Amino acid sequence: MAFLKYSLIRLALFAPLFVLFTFLELGALMSVICAALIAFAVSYLFFQKQRDEAAAALQRRFSGKAKPLRSAGEVQDAHAEDALLDANPDVTINNDAKGRKRP
User: Fold this and answer.
1) Quick check: 94 and 38 in contact, CB under 8 A?
2) DSSP string of the chain?
């Protein structure tokens, strides 16, 4: 949630600046570059708390300590499937074939 909040703040800074620079006829590429640089500078200087929260949220998500994205039932099903496959090594699963009709 913190990452989304910080991203929305940066987008809210970028969009009006882009419109302003486009209105001033700087050209599309130069408008994007100028708006991005100014939005970055403003968010870096004035939104440190939100930036730190967003960075912490990303760090938690990718550190391996985050809550799993699957439900407990899905995790149990996955473990049961893994155990079944380990017990039967001759069984293969082709996930690419799911949902396709065979000729």
Assistant:
1) no
2) -HHHHHHHHHHHHHHHHHHHHHHTT--HHHHHHHHHHHHHHHHHHH-HHHHHHHHHHHHHHHTT-SPPSS-HHHHHHHHHHHHHHHH-TT----GGGTTPPP-
Cβ atoms within 10 A of the Cβ of 100, count?
8
Each residue's pLDDT tens digit, 28-84: 999 999 999 999 999 999 999 999 999 998 888 888 776 667 777 888 888 888 888
CA 102-86-100 angle, to 5 degrees, is 15
Q: Which of 78, 14, 81, 19 is nearest to 43 (CA)?
A: 14
Tokens of 16: 């009006």
